[in-house]
Each structure stands twice: as structure tokens, then as C-alpha cells.
Design goal:
Number of helices: 7
Protein name: DUF3035 domain-containing protein
Strand content: under 5%
Pfam family, one: DUF3035
InterPro entries: DUF3035 (IPR021395)
Distance between the termini: 55 Å
Length: 169
């Protein structure tokens, strides 16, 4: 009786360990159905005032009924919808952009950071793939990079910085 329980327990642990590799924060669905977060309602069709003044169609480009969430948000907050899609830097932001790039800029920074993060996750997650129960590995891997808010607040206050808006921990 005890031997059969041990065998059943051992087989179940073995099967649990053979589950597929999903990486950290695997959030996609397993089904073949549509992803409900990718479906966006379109704007209603409108009859133009002048058919000759319509823009020429651009394959792969946007149309009049296409949604523009960033532009809609900027317009709702009182900004210019054109500024969202502009590739030039506005005069008000030029000083900030120049200051942030004072030590140099890298054109491929996203690829560099992605490669460094993949290497970091590879070294940190070497032995964490062997789990009995599936769990979210994100917090486990990046635990050393989390900000301890109370300790940071105490450090700033000990240095003489005033933090009146921050509650006391």
C-alpha cells in the first residue's frame, strides 16, 4: 500500500516536471480562437462632403475610420494630434532630449538591452526551471532589482532631502 502511494506520487511529480517551457510571464492563450484584446471596434462609416477631396489610398497606411488611441488621448488632454505622429522633436522637448543624450546615444539601444536581459535571465534561471508546480518566475529572477521603498525613503530623509508628499512607512 505504501509502495503504491510512493509510486503514484513519484509518477505524478515526474509528469509535473515534464510540463512545457513557457518562460516568464507567459500570458498568451492556448486556444486557437481570437485574442479578444487585439480586436478593436472601428469608427462608424461616414459619407464625405466632397468625394473629390478624399485622400489617395495608401496600401498598408491608415484610413479615415482607423483608430488612433494615442492621438485620441492627446487630443482629449488638449494636445495636438499631429504631434503624436511627428518624427521631429518639438522645441519644448528639445532641451530635455539634448540633456538626456549628453553622454552619447546608441541607435540600437533596444536590441542591446534585450540581449543583455536575455543573458541575465539565462544565468539567473539556470536551476529554476526544475519546479514541481508552475509559478511566475519574473519576481524570482528580478528580485535583486526591486526597489525597497521604505528603505529608499529613509535613505533620502537621512541625507536631508525633504519628502513631504511621501507617507511615513
Amino acid at each position: 500500500m505504501r509502495v503504491s502511494r510512493a509510486i503514484i506520487l513519484g509518477v505524478s511529480l515526474l509528469l509535473a516536471a515534464c510540463s512545457g517551457k513557457e518562460g516568464i510571464r507567459h500570458l498568451s492563450s492556448n486556444g486557437d480562437g481570437p485574442d479578444e484584446f487585439r480586436i478593436l471596434p472601428s469608427k462608424p462609416l461616414e459619407t464625405p462632403q466632397n468625394y473629390t477631396a478624399l485622400p489617395t489610398p495608401t496600401p498598408g497606411g491608415s484610413n479615415i475610420t482607423a483608430l488612433d488611441p494615442k492621438g485620441d488621448a492627446v487630443a482629449a488632454l488638449g494636445g495636438s494630434r499631429k504631434a503624436v505622429h511627428s518624427t521631429t522633436i518639438s522645441k519644448s522637448d528639445a532641451a530635455l532630449v539634448n540633456y538626456s543624450g549628453r553622454t552619447g546615444r546608441s541607435a540600437n539601444i533596444r536590441q542591446t538591452v534585450a540581449a543583455e536581459d536575455a543573458e541575465f535571465r539565462r544565468t539567473k534561471g539556470r536551476f529554476s526551471n526544475f519546479k514541481i508546480v508552475k509559478e511566475d518566475r519574473y519576481n524570482e529572477i528580478y528580485e535583486g532589482q526591486h526597489l525597497n521603498a521604505p528603505r529608499e525613503q529613509a535613505r533620502w530623509r537621512a541625507g536631508g532631502a525633504k519628502t513631504p508628499a511621501a507617507p511615513l512607512f
